Amino acid sequence: MRGGSVPQPVDIIIRGGLVVTLNDSGEVYPAGAIAIKGDAIVAVGEAGDITRRFAARTELSYPGDIILPGLINAHTHAAMTCFRGLADDLPLEIWLNEHMFPAERQISRELVYWGTSLAIAEMILSGTTTFCDMYLFADAVAQAAKEAGMRAVVGEVLYDFPSTNYGPPENGLKFTEELIRTWHDDPLIQVAVQPHTIYTCSPDLLTRCGDLAERYDTRLIIHLAETRREVTDCQERFGVTPVQHLLDLELLNTRLVADHGVVLSTQDRELLAEHGASVVHCPESNMKLASGVAPVVELLGQGVNVALGTDGCASNNNLDMFQEMDTAAKLHKVHHLDPTVLPAPEVLRLATRGGAQALNLLHRTGSLEPGKQADIIVIDGDQPHLTPLYNVYSQLVYAATGADVRTVLIAGQVVMQDRRLLTLDAAEAMAQVREFARQIKPLAH
Amino acid sequence: MRGGSVPQPVDIIIRGGLVVTLNDSGEVYPAGAIAIKGDAIVAVGEAGDITRRFAARTELSYPGDIILPGLINAHTHAAMTCFRGLADDLPLEIWLNEHMFPAERQISRELVYWGTSLAIAEMILSGTTTFCDMYLFADAVAQAAKEAGMRAVVGEVLYDFPSTNYGPPENGLKFTEELIRTWHDDPLIQVAVQPHTIYTCSPDLLTRCGDLAERYDTRLIIHLAETRREVTDCQERFGVTPVQHLLDLELLNTRLVADHGVVLSTQDRELLAEHGASVVHCPESNMKLASGVAPVVELLGQGVNVALGTDGCASNNNLDMFQEMDTAAKLHKVHHLDPTVLPAPEVLRLATRGGAQALNLLHRTGSLEPGKQADIIVIDGDQPHLTPLYNVYSQLVYAATGADVRTVLIAGQVVMQDRRLLTLDAAEAMAQVREFARQIKPLAH
To answer: Which of B288, B331, B434 sits opposite A287 (nearest CB)?
Structure first.
């Protein structure tokens, strides 16, 4: 490919600065570049080599900056941006029964669409290129993501009682199946089957969810073992832990994504590992709601795939995955009284490859490798709080925040350039959500 | 003051948006303003009332934004920006002995000056208007702060062995005394006596430090009860805990500021309360170094004044007090398995009034009140991740980061306007620190 050979035409070459690939061997190019054609990465390497081999329509140049795979927020309820800060610092029961549930009774397709659009703006601005969402009106979530060019795994939340969206419980699976069919083969949007919890879904509903997920080969995503009370109640009702309950229902397999996984016994963790299920760790939500510290170090030690998520804005209260990485890395160190656990490179892997594997997207995203989708973010390295640079993983996990992201590509499309959102109107989403908020609760001091 | 009365001339009127005063009654003005004359606040109130009563040379208008007192970073080693990310995820002994101590042997007055300048840029950019620093070459720290118009409490770190700055140990107190005299009556810079720890300072040195602090009525600031090992060693050596050791040396009084305070018995906390000492909580450093969780909820319950600090960049790795507030609020919730502890308004008080009280600056800063210094920050409220707004305290603690600060005043001087630093050259500080970093350790992957 050297010498007189003709450069291969591509659409975009993006060059650093550092390129952190997160490929299997963890390659980092001190002065790297990526060639992109259509939605996919063609090559990753030293900038000199890439620019010799390829000729691009568009060159994006970021000397002194850090280029890495887009982050994957593996668990959120995006439209809950509408409830950000509505009720905090309260006992869980009061928070849920007196604030969240009444607020959620007011939701509509419009609120979900605009709340999700606002969340997508926030996520792109903070370097997330894929999110996995569980909420009502999942069709509106998919629509908002598709319009913004955002990669998403969506699913309608299912439970034993009527839904504001699909009405009586028996309609939920039908709604989900239609959603799966609508988005079948879409390059950006995946649909998953998403029962809410083991305490809001009967064994019969869970079994039917599992059947649907198997029939269409989708993920089966559920809040699992989030609180002590959930585990105690499950043991009283079914005589087993939530994980064992899913095993008994034959739902423990590689399709299963367990959100939270805070209260897990050694045997639970062994079962998750043995059956290839994933756990989505949401440290800030677990801390703020005082659920507990998920046994992430133990899960990783036992070989379970772990992803990272922010949970919804009502329990965080933002969607910044950089802050989530920082908190995860620090929380487990103090929990184990061991500063060596969850080192920075491992935490970055949870927020990228871990999420991709959980969502069955590792063939598409989670690292910068030829053949994968061009989901790429650029960190502005020329800032006081990112100076000096000794170790790029430390810098990304412990010093950076989402506000340091300057440019974002999803599937080869530049969705943000130098902090300017190109695929959605954040001002309109903010105006719409402020109007919903005024109806939900006037500002009080 | 109404009707035909002549408006009083002032220098600046800054108007919101919300004005969060943090005064004794916790007043918040939904559309507030502040009148400033010279370095001080003349009045705080409803914007309409302020603009009727005062006529300003300069009007700064921030509709839709949030105005609050500047944050106080009550414990840091500012120049350690030079070691940001140099060595992470390591056991404490290896981190200290193989990385921090060798790096610190290379420091010079120039490194401290530029490292501190970089830290001040970072702190102003993230809404801190006062910092309390412990480091070598404290004269260079004071100089950097003074030049940047930053409020600071500085102190030369003292211990029983020779210092790169002042040489043999006996020179340390003399150096400190000269520093106190040099900065006597400065409106921005205070000097404190700062022995390093009870295990690096003999009882004799500690006693002489206490005498010096008493003679000049300064704060006496020390790392105290940071690790289990410190407490165990103290008990073996002196038969008492570190707090009791200071009591025995007659150093436990309102002048004492105990940094970290992680490992404190009930009796230690009672002693701190009884004698009016302050504790500076550094949650992110304590988490990252795996020191433990300081008993902040218990300290506050027992009436101890608590401030908040980031510690140095080697153990954090940034100086963002908004992230520190978020982490503090969440850490204690999960530690106590109680979502009601450390609610957002209380955490904001730790980062403002708590710090001011610890540093004997509550008459000057920590709240927006007539007669106090105009140390004021403005948060850009018109952003996706700060939308909608139900509760301003939740928004500041759980959703905002330092990057949301748009304008900063210290002692009535606008030091940052719309993210542009006006009193220091961040680019030069970054260039200088990068050069020091290249000498310390070349970039490795």
So the answer is: B331
Chain A residue closest to B288 (CA)? Answer: A330
The 3-class secondary structure across A136-177, one letter per residue, is CCHHHHHHHHHHHCCEEEECEEECCCCECCCECCHHHHHHHH
Q: pLDDT per residue over B2-27, tens digit each?
A: 456 899 999 999 999 999 999 999 99
A336 neighbourhood in chain B, CB within 8 Å:
290
3-class DSSP state for residue B99? helix
**Interface contact B289, partner A, CB < 8 A:** yes
Chain A residue numbers with beta carbons less than 8 Å from the beta carbon of B445 are 28, 30, 392
- Shared domain for B221 and B238, answered yes or no, is yes
Query: Which tokens go with A270?
Result: 């062994």
* Beta bridge pairs of residue A153: A132, A190
**Which residues, in sequence order, are CB contacts of A16 under 8 Å at separation 6+?**
A29, A31, A32, A33, A47, A62, A63, A65, A66, A67, A378
Strands B18-20 and B66-69: parallel
Between A and B, how many CB-CB pairs are < 8 A? 232
Q: What is the number of helices (H) and of strands (E) in chain A?
A: 17, 21
Which residue among A30, A344, A445 sits closest to B89, beta carbon to beta carbon?
A344
Tens digit of each residue's pLDDT (9 = 90 or more) over A256-282:
999 999 999 999 999 999 999 999 999
Containing domain of residue B9, as a range?
2-69+376-410
List strand residue ranges (DSSP E) for B209-324, in order: 220-224, 256-260, 278-281, 305-308
User: Full-prediction pTM beyond 0.95?
Assistant: yes
Please write the tens of the pLDDT for every residue from B272-327.
Answer: 999 999 999 999 999 999 999 999 999 999 999 999 999 999 999 999 999 999 99
Whole-number pLDDT of residue A92: 80
- Structurally, chain A folds into a number of domains equal to 2
Nearest CB neighbour to B290, from listed A334, A398, A426: A334
Contact (CB, 8 A) for B407 and B362:
no
Nearest one of B241, B174, B164, B229 to B205, comparing CA atoms: B174
Query: Do B180 and B250 sit in the same domain of this protein?
Result: yes
Q: Is residue A366 part of a domain?
A: no
Same domain, residue pair B402 and B298: no
Mean pLDDT score across all residues of chain B = 96
The answer to the question of residue A399 being in a domain is yes
Same domain assignment for residues B311 and B383 = no
DSSP state of A380: -
Contact A388 B82 (CB under 8 A): yes
| DSSP one-letter code for A81 | G
CATH of the domain at A39: 2.30.40.10
- Residue B303 structure tokens: 């009436």
pLDDT in tens, B322-356: 999 999 999 999 999 999 999 999 999 999 999 99
Does A25 reside within a domain? yes
Of B361, B375, B362, nearest in space to B41 by CA: B375
Question: Is B43 inside a domain boundary?
Answer: yes
Task: Report the SS3 class of residue A263.
Answer: coil
Instruction: Please indicate if any CB of chain A lies within 8 Å of the CB of B323.
Output: yes
Q: How far apart are CA B370 and CA B364, in angstroms?
A: 10
Please, which residues bridge with residue B29 across strands? Answer: B19
The encoded tokens of residue A25 equal 């061997």
At a CB cut-off of 8 Å and minimum separation 6, what does A207 contact? Answer: A249, A250, A251
Please check whether residues B78 and B61 belong to one and the same domain: no
Q: B90: nearest CA in chain A?
A: A340
Nearest CA in chain B to A432: B388
d(CA B298, CA B341) in angstroms, rounded, equals 10
Residue B218's pLDDT band (boundaries 50, 70, 90)? Answer: very high
pLDDT in tens, B423-445: 999 999 999 999 999 998 865 44
Q: Is the peptide bond before A388 cis (omega within 30 degrees of 0)?
A: yes
